[in-house]
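Priority: medium. Attachment 1 of 2:
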């Protein structure tokens, strides 16, 4: 047998671990949310955000155990990851069957915290959208008020706030 050429690198595997035919499963993405590598977390959260747009995926994402790591990312990750986590939760909260489970998992307070003045407009927009969707449930509306969301949402109606953020804040306020 001929020895491998030293001028070309050998490819041991073309597929990332945990994949089949190069495709990750939803459980792979959920597992990657807990990665210690920020770039893996970011890939996973973006994939789940994209999946969460489809109504038929929203219940499946919730059933996959994604909520606890999503909430953790809203409190312990970079601002960009926190914003994408809020966007994902906002998409999931568009499904009425997910609204109470998101609140029960503790998702409301981290969303309210993303309305803080020092955070990005993207973080505020996605948090306000998620709160807007969660507030469709009357019990959640009470929890959102108790979490202190009213004052920061009102402050987002200010003249200097981008229109896209104002729209979500106004929607969250009802």
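Attachment 2 of 2:
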């Amino acid at each position: 047998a001929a020895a491998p050429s030293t001028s070309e690198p050998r490819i041991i595997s073309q597929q990332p671990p945990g994949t089949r035919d190069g495709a990750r499963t939803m459980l792979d993405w959920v597992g990657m949310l807990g990665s210690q590598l920020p770039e893996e977390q970011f890939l996973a959260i973006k994939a789940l955000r994209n999946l969460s747009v489809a109504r038929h995926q929203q219940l499946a994402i919730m059933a996959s155990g994604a909520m606890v790591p999503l909430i953790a990312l809203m409190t312990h990750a970079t601002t960009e990851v926190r914003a994408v986590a809020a966007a994902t939760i906002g998409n999931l909260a568009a499904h009425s069957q997910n609204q109470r489970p998101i609140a029960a998992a503790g998702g409301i307070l981290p969303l309210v915290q993303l309305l803080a003045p020092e955070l990005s407009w993207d973080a505020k927009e996605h948090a306000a959208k998620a709160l807007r969707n969660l507030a469709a449930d009357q019990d959640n509306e009470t929890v959102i008020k108790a979490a202190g969301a009213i004052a920061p949402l009102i402050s987002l109606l200010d003249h200097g706030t981008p229109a896209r953020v104002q729209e979500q804040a106004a929607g969250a306020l009802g």
